[in-house]
Specification:
This protein has 280 residues and is α+β, with helices and mostly antiparallel strands. The chain is 28% helix and 26% strand.
């Protein structure tokens, strides 16, 4: 089985409060992209029952293998279940520490793959619960469709994506890794009232008056390259520009395809294409 875990963008990212468990509550519209990693998962009789053999290509993945969300996803499903031996190969395309949710997508798509290959029959609700145990962004990738995401990321409410038709997105990554600790440095959560679904029916050029990424100001102060990219996208004709996630990736939404393609070429974008991606 071959799956394509996608990147996601945040349309707005408001950190609205800190929770007793140490996490933060957020509000954001998550949108999947057609920019993906590649994950192949197979049943393999040469691998001992209940274990997983992994291989990796593409971008180098830092850290110990035991901390990878693909491995953790397999471990979650192996608890109390007699899984067959399996192999997983990940070809890593999406940059890490970039606010694109690539690692979260990989782990959640591993849950989906094992559920299907091993015929576990887990419901969407159960997969959502398991994904939330993997990480804050993971539950979104169970469906991987545009959604309003709240709580620490575990509450996912799909939104109709007709507003995305005709919008093009240019995504640029300056090659800067921003850790979670750095992202939250100096950030003060605050409540705001945003009619998120109503926002999607307003002109894209008006979104800057309603939403923002709370991590963006601090990231731009510490890394002026991020601010430079945002300004370059705006000058290239983007109707809305923003950093996504905790950074450092930025994006511009364009209403004109030719402008988007031109900006993508000039800025050496990692991705340039229609906003949104089909469920897969």
């Amino acid at each position: 089985m071959v799956l394509f875990p996608p990147a996601k963008l945040n349309l707005g990212l408001h950190v609205v409060g800190k929770r007793p468990d140490g996490y933060h509550n957020l509000e954001s519209i998550f949108v999947p992209l057609g920019w993906t990693d590649v994950l192949e998962v197979l049943l393999d009789q040469s691998v001992p029952q209940g274990t997983l053999k992994t291989t990796w290509t593409g971008l180098p993945i830092p850290g110990e293998e035991s901390g990878n969300l693909i491995v953790k996803a397999h471990q979650l499903l192996a608890q109390g279940r007699d899984l067959p031996g399996m192999t997983a190969h990940l070809h890593k395309v999406l940059p890490m520490g970039a606010g694109l949710g690539g690692g979260s997508a990989d782990g959640t798509y591993m849950l989906r793959a094992v559920n299907e290959l091993c015929e576990l029959g887990l419901t969407r609700e159960t997969l959502m619960e398991l994904a939330a145990q993997l990480g804050s962004d993971c539950a979104f990738f169970v469906g991987a469709v545009p959604a309003l995401v709240t709580g620490r990321g575990e509450h996912v409410s799909p939104v109709r994506a007709t507003w995305a038709e005709g919008l093009w997105v240019v995504v640029c990554n300056p090659g800067i890794h921003i850790s979670t600790a750095e992202a939250f440095e100096g950030l003060t959560p605050g409540l705001r009232k945003v009619e998120w679904e109503a926002l999607l029916h307003q002109p894209v050029s008006s979104w800057s008056d309603e939403i923002q990424n709370d991590f963006e100001t601090g990231a731009c102060t510490r890394h002026p390259e991020i601010l430079d990219l945002l300004q370059s996208l705006r000058k290239a004709g983007a109707a809305y520009v923003q950093m996504t996630g905790s950074g450092s990736t930025v994006f511009g939404l364009f209403e004109d395809e030719a402008q988007a393609q031109n900006a993508g070429r000039n800025l050496a974008a990692g991705y340039c294409g229609p906003l949104g991606a089909p469920q897969c």
